[in-house]
Request: fold
Amino acid sequence: MKNNTFKDYIAPTVVLAAICLVITFALAYVNSITAPIIEENAIATANEARAELLPAADTFTEYDGELAVVETDKIFVTECYIADNGSGMVVTVKTKSFGGLLTEMIGIDNTGAITGVKVTAHGDTPGLGTKAHDPEYLKQYVGLTEATDMTAKADANVTHVSGATISSNGVHAGVYAALEQYKLVGGAK
Reply:
């Protein structure tokens, strides 16, 4: 039997490469359509969370100065938005938690008191670790003006979730970082 190199090896390779190119262009086209919509939805969701965490605010302007880094790659501020009416700020923080990096938003009024905490993304264990993300647990931070320690267990101002200490500490470290950001900005102006 005679071996035809072109038919057996080159033609299938060319066909496969063509299929890959067509699919790549199709995915790029779909991405160009959906990416702006996804970005708009993410911005709208973040704006809703800011309004929820600092209800006295009318609109927000992103702070373009230095962002607090409490511990590199473990506890750091990613965004800070200041209310245009001077009522406070909302800080987005990433902290190390049980399931990886936890993202939370913290509202702080113009007196430096926490107005609300909301966990927006996490990889913690559903049921146990997520007890530290529960709105009932997070209510304890409202009114807090200082965190005396980066860990929830060592801070006398709050309680931690027994059995979810790492998740509790992740949330608490985020609050600590947000209060550090408030000091860094010099308060809400």
